[in-house]
Amino acid sequence: MDSYQNDRTWLKVQEYLPPHNRLEKAELPEEYYLTIDTMEIHIDHYKVASPKGRVILFHGVGGNGRMLSALALPFMRNGFEVICPDLPLYGYTHCSKNVTWQTWVSVGTEIVNHYQSTKQLPTFLFGLSAGGMLAYQTATECPQLNGLMASCILDQRNKEVTKHSAKNPYVGMAAKPALALLQTVAGHIRIPMKWIGNMKAIVNNKELAAVLIKDKKSSGARVSLAFIHTMLNPVIKTEPEDFKSCPFLLVHPAEDHWTDLKYSLLFYQRLACEKQTVILEGAGHFPIEEPGLMQLEQACVTFLESHL
């Protein structure tokens, strides 16, 4: 099966990371596939001998599981096993069906249930970018979770959120009505996600952004019109005022040029659960800069340890 062993993009990404967060040969994750429905979901599994708990990391619409290695390594080094799936349409996951946002929620839920059925451990979710809302929706389906962490949490049902998280405000305003029409007759057609999302702002380093946008397994991926339409119109079963099943940590980058903190706060401030916010100094949307990346590690590990 395909794997990251022969993939050059993730190796290129390592050059832009702080040395402490670079993935060396001795710490490479185990790669394998998990069958969910008709899909073969690629998994990066960072293992430890006697794990304190488990962290499942969800990427967003500009990444894949291997891109989360900079976050996975600190968790592993602090005694947690880490699961990084390639969500359908991204990375090396194989999927022939038409993928919608609900497919992602179902996959997230099945992943949690699979690992909990294999070995019960205190389990946490972390969502980066759009993975933040995915982690939240997965948590509403999996009440046994110990905690939820996210770099942002965007409720795309809010027109202002859609307007300001799209490639530009004009695309954001036109996207919902246009997609509502198009997806009924052409929902299976795939377009580059960069046509809709502001992929140039996924990282603050322009050279790295260019590398990622060329990568068809991450920021250069093509997604179906049905996926975009359902992502912008998610069915959220549990509103934040009713969410009390686990604590929530928001670790938002201070220099995020894609999704401003105020748009995450629209949803976050409504949460009824125990919650905490940490602002990551100097970090962009994909937080690879110091001191923000170290602050993320410290805040998340403290959160994990306190909710085991």
UniProtKB/TrEMBL annotation:
InterPro entries: AB_hydrolase_fold (IPR029058), Hydrolase_4 (IPR022742), MAG_DAG_Lipase (IPR051044). Gene3D superfamilies: alpha/beta hydrolase (3.40.50.1820). Keywords: Hydrolase. GO terms for molecular function: hydrolase activity. Residues 50-291 form the Serine aminopeptidase S33 domain. This is Alpha-beta hydrolase superfamily lysophospholipase.
